[in-house]
Design goal:
alpha/beta, 2 domains, seven-stranded mixed beta sheet, 7 strands, hydrolase
Length: about 250
């Protein structure tokens, strides 16, 4: 409905301008515009179906808490600095409640004692420096307009903290007393144990993905991921920029 407070002012202006024939069409057109704008404004505010949420804004439930893998200590699965590995988990719902999407964080490698030592005081080498919450967006988004295929799946972001695409072994560790843990393979194993216990053991569909060093981890662990899940589950792996060229120095 048009705003009644606009009517007296509009008609007063029309009366004053009536002596000028050229002003009448202008005034009439102006009143028509005012009525149209106020009418559609009222209609949109009264009708909830016209509301469109702003998906660019950040809602509280876009942020997902960090979870430490406490059982990792007994398995000897540690980040570079000896802290516990971690992940973020958002439970699926509706038709996606039996489907799982895992995304492995990227971040390159450390390949020298110096670079790995620097790395262990960053989120890429220690869960002590990881954010307590991260925003799930893109392939992890909960909005169907942004992520139509996976928005309601169980979604996991695996934090990358071993410096070697979740492939390191204790045999690779320095024996000179340096406190650096290369336990990526053990991190992978303990993470899978935990996620299977959370319901992934009953997955109907599953996607393992990763970017950069996480993409390489996806390539490394894809076959094992397939073997861990039900035989009748549909399982895929997606490695984004997972092939890294290694410079060989003679």
């Amino acid at each position: 409905m048009a705003n009644p407070r606009l009517l007296p002012a509009a008609f007063l202006w029309l009366k004053k301008s009536a002596k000028k024939h050229w002003a009448i069409p202008t005034v009439g057109f102006t009143i028509l515009i005012v009525f149209a704008l106020t009418f559609f404004s009222d209609q949109s505010s009264d009708n909830p179906s016209t509301f469109r949420p702003n998906f660019d804004s950040t809602a509280d439930d876009d942020f997902v808490d960090l979870t430490l893998v406490h059982r990792a200590k007994d398995k000897g699965a540690f980040c570079l600095d000896g802290s516990l590995p971690a992940y973020h988990f958002q439970k699926g719902f509706g038709s996606g409640s039996s489907n799982w999407l895992l995304h492995i964080e990227g971040g390159g490698w450390c390949n020298t004692l110096e670079s790995c030592t620097r790395r262990q005081v960053t989120p890429l080498g220690s869960s002590k420096y990881m954010e307590p919450q991260v925003r799930f967006s893109g392939i992890l988004s909960r909005y169907p307009t942004q992520n139509p295929e996976f928005f309601n799946w169980n979604k996991v972001k695996i934090r990358y903290c071993d410096g070697a695409s979740l492939a390191g072994h204790p045999e690779s560790e320095f024996k000179n007393g340096t406190k650096l843990y290369f336990r990526g393979q053990r991190i992978w194993e303990v993470l899978m144990e935990e996620l299977l216990s959370l319901g992934m053991s009953n997955a109907k569909q599953a996607l393992l993905s990763g970017c950069s060093a996480g993409g390489l981890a996806t390539l490394i662990h894809c076959d094992n991921f397939r073997d861990l899940l039900p035989k009748d589950a549909t399982v895929k792996c997606l490695a984004d920029a997972g092939k890294m060229l290694v410079e060989i120095i003679p």
